Amino acid sequence: MRKILFTLTSVFALTSLGRSSFHVQDDGDFNPISVKTFIGVKDDIRELIFERNAVKIRTAKNNLIDIKKENISGIPTGLSYSDLSDFLTKNSWAKVSKFDEDDYNVKVNTRCKGGMYKSNPFDDLFIQIEFVLGKEHKDTKKWKNSLLSENIVQKKRALTEIQNSFFQSKDENENCKNIFNSAFSLKQEIDQLPRKQFQSKASDYFIKNLGAVSVSFKEKLGGDQLGNRIIVQLKDGQEITYHAKTHRGGLKSQHSSSSQPVDLKELLIYKVLAFSGIGAETHFFYDDIKNFYIATKDAGYDDESKKQGEFFTYQKIKEKVSQEELLKDSSIINGFIKTDIISRLLLLSDVINNSDNTGISPSGQFKVIDFNPPVTKEYKNSKIFEDWLSGNNQYNYSDPTVISILKKENKEEKIKESIFALGELENFEKNVSLAYEDVIENVKKIEGISELQIQDLKEYTASVIENYKYLRGSIKY
Fold first, then answer.
1. Which residues of the chain register pLDDT less than 70?
2. Strand ordering across the sheet containing 292-297
3. Which region, left, alpha or beta, applies to residue 178 given φ > 0 means left and ψ of -120 to 50 means alpha?
4. Do residues 87 and 76 lie in contact, with contact meaning Cβ atoms separated by under 8 Å?
5. How far apart are CA 466 and CA 447, in angstroms?
6. Quick one: DSSP state of residue 225?
7. Are 84 and 91 in contact, with CB atoms under 8 Å apart?
8. How high is the pLDDT of residue 54?
């Protein structure tokens, strides 16, 4: 292994334009139109911008033609509809429909004190939309329900619809432009909320539980789940990297549309691998049943020297080292044998078949760094011995080195070569039980964990132990 290692070593700002009431103001130089006429003009322009109904559009155009002909209240004649809209925005709208800022602030402060309004930017955006479209417009009602709901997915969907609806008119009308920009900024802010939430929980966890003096974040190296590399600095100067992400059913990214409750089996597997010496040190922290995070210590960190080294994935190894050399290395041979057995016991997939999910640490230890938990509900495997002995079956191994190690024509030879790996798994049953206790201790305080989830974990744990006993009892050596 030393020879192999030697070879490898060579925000946003929201514009509030809420309108609380209409005021007719005469400044002497301007003869304002009546509120009724103003609202009629505004409604007609609204129909032209937002409606798809041909009759409504034709009626609105005729009304505006009449207004331009009569030159009501100083509106210039000969303007295009976009110019007319712009003129009303900059002139008549500003004077006839002046925003009473003091009145608005009173309402906001009152609602804040009553706990109904907590600086909700979605409420501010809705006020803008209500002013432009009107309270009774179908989109106003639809978007109000979405923007003021607690469902983030609904909010994002509504913000996307608002952006699309106001896209064309944003360059012609200042109010539409403000709505478009506000929706765009809010959507960006929402997209960052899951990551901010995740990073806040991570910082709190490592400071409280590991005594970290500093916690920083870097981009995750791969995978589609929401997460980060976390750099934890301890009091003694150690700097340790952890790879943290949501559970497998959690957010795939900050743009993900939904997440599922955590699968307790996944948590158990992480702990079993860690306790068995083939996985990484694992930590759990969470907000709730859906926003549950898993952090594993970087497999390149050496606990003895307390220094960060490089973890070589099997993919990197086989690109640099010949198959002949690999088949002479005991760490590679025993590592694959042990991993194959554990994968069958725990019903894992995407482990040995994925060359990036296994590898060698700086100290020469074979490690598993990622996996897929079981999708089947049939946790007991009565054919586990036969499947293991054949060396392939459901896993369909294709790598030549892996096949040479695991798929032996001589079954007695396979059993003989597996003795060392089986000896390392002597405490497997104990490790599974410890992992179960660890998971239950971590999740018992989470609101929403159901009895069905707990029961599923119990059945899975019992079946894994039964699989182990059956396999071990079937191997005679």
1. 1-121, 253-258, 392-394, 477
2. 214-218, 227-233, 239-246, 292-297, 282-286
3. alpha
4. yes
5. 31
6. S
7. no
8. 54
